[in-house]
Amino acid sequence: MPLSIPQNNSLCDILTSEGISLIDKSSFSKNIKSLKVLILNLMPAKLETEIQLLRVLGFSNNYIEVTFLTTKTYTSKNTSKEYLDMFYKTFDEIKDEPFDGMIITGAPVEHLDFEDIIYWDELKDIMDYSSKNIKSTFHICWGAQAGLYHHYGIKKYNLHKKIFGVFSHKSNNPYSKLLNGFDDEFFAPHSRYSYMKKNDFEGLDDLEILSESDEAGIYIVKSKNFKNIFVTGHSEYDSYTLYNEYKRDINKNIDTQIPKNYFLNDNPNNKPIVKWRGHSNLLFYNWIKILTSL
């Protein structure tokens, strides 16, 4: 179904070339209810993340109106101020508007304590806003860790070696609406230097660990009534996102390993093998379907 997004020509050209329908907000029929989704994009490569998320949202059967949100207390070093001013809003501009769903992306700040992050206080205000005004918030990677820490006090723990690659996962509750249609085994990319301990979830009856991996650990967590969803991986990633991260680290002389289970025969000279796209689309499709029922 069509998406309504800020009129960014570069973004629109890429999405329409992939067959994703875009529509102007004014063209929404009064007889058709659209879902309003707010995306807090904390990733450095804004356009890349926009494309990834809009691609999976466009897989749904609903009309979706998307608003992009950026932080006011921190200005991106990788995206121009002109771009942000043109296509993004700040929290002060939207805090009185109603939204159905929200996505909080990851951010390359996991080596820092949450309280040491420049925009942490602003992010707390946004997450408090989501608790009162958003039907369901979908947290991704570091965003999931930040949300679990803020809402439930669950800590993240640093790793010496990055969880990096495409890993097998299992479903702890195959009857959950969020995992509807999932296979017994499915795959998802991960790229992080931190993790959460399963023991820290004990006694928190509001949370359910829906999916985990023997290698990558906890993957999908939800709160009761799907108010908050936490996904520690990057199911939205493109075919070459892990490859680009791998090459970036090599070029910076960072000691990094080859992303596991990603290249054919784990050889970086070979083409990446995509085996997560179907379940990525299904995960966001199920979330949007849940939004319509809340």
TrEMBL record:
<feature type="site" description="Important for substrate specificity">
    <location>
        <position position="191"/>
    </location>
</feature>
<feature type="binding site">
    <location>
        <position position="191"/>
    </location>
    <ligand>
        <name>substrate</name>
    </ligand>
</feature>
<dbReference type="Pfam" id="PF04204">
    <property type="entry name" value="HTS"/>
</dbReference>
<dbReference type="InterPro" id="IPR029062">
    <property type="entry name" value="Class_I_gatase-like"/>
</dbReference>
<feature type="active site" description="Acyl-thioester intermediate">
    <location>
        <position position="141"/>
    </location>
</feature>
<feature type="binding site">
    <location>
        <position position="248"/>
    </location>
    <ligand>
        <name>substrate</name>
    </ligand>
</feature>
<keyword id="KW-0486">Methionine biosynthesis</keyword>
<dbReference type="GO" id="GO:0008899">
    <property type="term" value="F:homoserine O-succinyltransferase activity"/>
</dbReference>
<protein>
    <recommendedName>
        <fullName>Homoserine O-acetyltransferase</fullName>
        <ecNumber>2.3.1.31</ecNumber>
    </recommendedName>
</protein>
<keyword id="KW-0808">Transferase</keyword>
<feature type="site" description="Important for acyl-CoA specificity">
    <location>
        <position position="110"/>
    </location>
</feature>
<feature type="active site">
    <location>
        <position position="236"/>
    </location>
</feature>
<comment type="function">
    <text>Transfers an acetyl group from acetyl-CoA to L-homoserine, forming acetyl-L-homoserine.</text>
</comment>
<comment type="similarity">
    <text>Belongs to the MetA family.</text>
</comment>
<dbReference type="InterPro" id="IPR005697">
    <property type="entry name" value="HST_MetA"/>
</dbReference>
<dbReference type="InterPro" id="IPR033752">
    <property type="entry name" value="MetA_family"/>
</dbReference>
<keyword id="KW-0028">Amino-acid biosynthesis</keyword>
<keyword id="KW-0012">Acyltransferase</keyword>
<comment type="pathway">
    <text>Amino-acid biosynthesis; L-methionine biosynthesis via de novo pathway; O-acetyl-L-homoserine from L-homoserine: step 1/1.</text>
</comment>
<feature type="binding site">
    <location>
        <position position="162"/>
    </location>
    <ligand>
        <name>substrate</name>
    </ligand>
</feature>
<keyword id="KW-0963">Cytoplasm</keyword>
<feature type="active site" description="Proton acceptor">
    <location>
        <position position="234"/>
    </location>
</feature>
